[in-house]
Amino acid sequence: MSEERIQLTRALKSRHIFMLSLGGVIGTGLFMGSGVIINQGGPAGAVLAYLVAGVLMYLVMVCLGELSVQMPVSGSFQAHATRYIGPGTGFMIGWVYWMSWATTVGLEFTAAGMLMTRWFPDVPIWYWSALFVAVLFSLNALATRAFGEAEYWFSGIKVAAILGFIVVGLLAIFGGLPLASGEPAPMFSNLIGDSLFPNGISAVFAVMMAVVYAFQGCEIMGVAAGETDQPEKSIPRAVRNVVFRVLIFYVLAIVVLSAIVPWQEAGLMESPFVQVFDMVGIPFAADLMNFVILTAILSVGNSGLYASTRILWAMSKTGMAPRGLARLSKRGVPLNALSVTLCFALVSLLTSFIAADTLFMVLMAISGMAGTVTWIVIALAQYRFRRELYKSGGTVQDLKYAAPLFPLIPLACILMCSSLFIFLAMDPTQRPSLYWGFGFIGVCYAAYYVLQYKRQRSAVIAPAA
After folding, report:
1. DSSP secondary-structure letter at 12?
2. pLDDT score of 24
3. Quick one: how far is CA 447 from the chain centroid?
4. Is 108 in a helix, a strand, or coil?
5. Is 46 exposed, middle or buried (0-12, 13-18, 19+ CB in 10 A)?
6. Whole-angstrom distance, CA of residue 419 vs CA of residue 45
7. What are phi and psi of 12, to 5 degrees?
8. What is the pLDDT, as a whole number, of residue 2?
């Protein structure tokens, strides 16, 4: 059988999809970024910000769930956007999302290498980065099942770490575990002591985009739909489980952090999770959390490499990317698309050293906006799909899984995501990301219509020749 005729295999089970979505959300944004959110937004402000972002994630997940069950393809929202919004938007969101994840994967390699220097200070960072490149490439190249199993265990370690942290933190809050400093149990004095919003309510809006970034990655569930066994069962189950468990993990963890660590000290020097373990006197706390964060980074890199590869493969099947990237290995893996993605990830890794103030900042700005733009496109595609269903005489009963409260949910999702750009525009330090992000989106649309024009001219000229 030739490589061109092999299709992606449906090797991912329900447990893989659940952990894949969970792992895409639980990453360094929680383990490292939560301290900065608490410090800038205040304790209650941080809890409120994570709650609002969690609600937004729910809106996205139910919209994507409906689309993915109806159209379970590996291109996911890129294919949905092409079908229900327009091929120009499908082209744009595919390249924006691919570049976003490929850039992120490159950063993960460096971050993982830096973490290893804690245990091996004499070994150069690039040695470890090269090792992790080889490991993640192998996991993605062997077979889809190998990737799914690796991500299942990566995510399992993160979930176990968070659950353990919540239990330890609650015991420390109520006096079940004495603080190493000998101070009395804090209860909720740090959470509501000085002020619910010590830096003002405006500070909560300022950190909202960073909090939403922490939840982005849940949409990888849709990318995996094309390789999912029984998508009509596994995807709705993943939507239900992921949303509520992520909300519990995130919100409880932030409550515990805010109650134990004074907001003035949170996130200034190290991970707040390490701070809590140190405060209750748990030995080897820093090493333990260093391992968990390393796992989180590898998990994000693993998921990002998978998602960006599948998006690139799906675009190549429809002529939106070079056709050669559509070829699959005998194991049903898009090796060409995987190799191109990895090469771009390594280029983005180099720009963080040799062009940090120019090209690297542009890549990061586009990457930061990509997730929010993707969520808007998902909600708009679901809205257009449902309107098309009703116009053709269909009903909700015809759907195997339907997002509730239509059209309220997709419209609320679009409105909430769009409001995040207003918050960005109000912050002078984050405003440039809008220019670069929307500028790249404009370039993608322009490139699509130029390519379309050339194809149409070729089609007209060819018969005459």
Report:
1. B
2. 66
3. 26
4. helix
5. buried
6. 18
7. -90, 130
8. 40
Helix 87-116 vs helix 359-391: angle between axes, to the nearest 10 degrees?
140
- In angstroms, what CA-CA distances link 339 with 55, 151, 196, 335, 345? 36, 20, 49, 6, 10
DSSP letter for 321, please.
Answer: S
* Phi, psi angle pair for 361, to nearest 5°: -65, -35
| CB-CB neighbours of 353 under 10 Å | 9
pLDDT 10s digits, 407-422: 999 999 999 999 989 8
DSSP annotation of 183 reads P
Give residue 103's identity as a one-letter amino acid code.
Answer: T
Q: How many CB atoms lie within 10 A of CB 324?
A: 10
Report the amino acid identity of residue 322. P
* Phi, then psi, of 228 in degrees rounded to 5: -100, 130
Positive/negative CA dihedral, 289, 294, 298, 303: positive
Compute the distance between CA of residue 446 and CA of residue 453 in angstroms, rounded to an integer: 11
Q: What is the mean pLDDT of residues 298-322?
A: 88
**What's the pLDDT score for residue 430?**
78
Closest CA to 372 of 201, 218, 151, 245: 218
193 φ, ψ (degrees, to nearest 5): -65, -70
Conformational region of residue 251, where left means phi above 0, alpha means psi within -120 to 50, and beta covers everything else: alpha
Distance of CA 1 to the CA centre of its chain: 36
Using one digit for the tens of pLDDT, what is the confidence trace for 249-292? 888 888 888 888 888 777 655 678 877 887 888 778 778 888 88
CA distance 330 to 129: 28
Residue 366 main-chain phi, psi, to 5 deg: -65, -40
CB-based contact 20:217 (threshold 8 Å): no
Give the position of tokens 């949409």: 219
Which H or E run contains 394? none
Buried b (16+ CB within 10 A) or exposed e, 175-201: eebeeeeeeebbeeebbeeeeebbbee
Cβ atoms of residues 274 and 183 within 8 Å:
no
pTM: 0.87
Specify which residues 199 forms β-bridges with: none
* Integer Cα distance of 212 and 218 in angstroms: 11
Dihedral class, residue 456 (left if φ above 0, else alpha if ψ from -120 to 50, else beta): alpha
3-state SS assignment for residue 181? coil
With CA atoms as reference, report the closest residue to 67 among 53, 85, 51, 52.
Answer: 85
Instruction: Compute the distance between CA of residue 298 and CA of residue 111 in angstroms, rounded to an integer.
Output: 9
* pLDDT digits 0-9 by tens, 160-204: 888 888 898 899 888 888 887 777 878 877 777 666 777 778 778
Q: Which helix (H) or strand (E) holds 451?
A: helix 431-464
The Cα 297–Cα 295 span in angstroms is 5
Give the span between the Cα atoms of 65 and 152, in whole angstroms: 20
Q: With bands split at pLDDT 50, 70 and 90, how would you rate the model's confidence at 460?
A: low
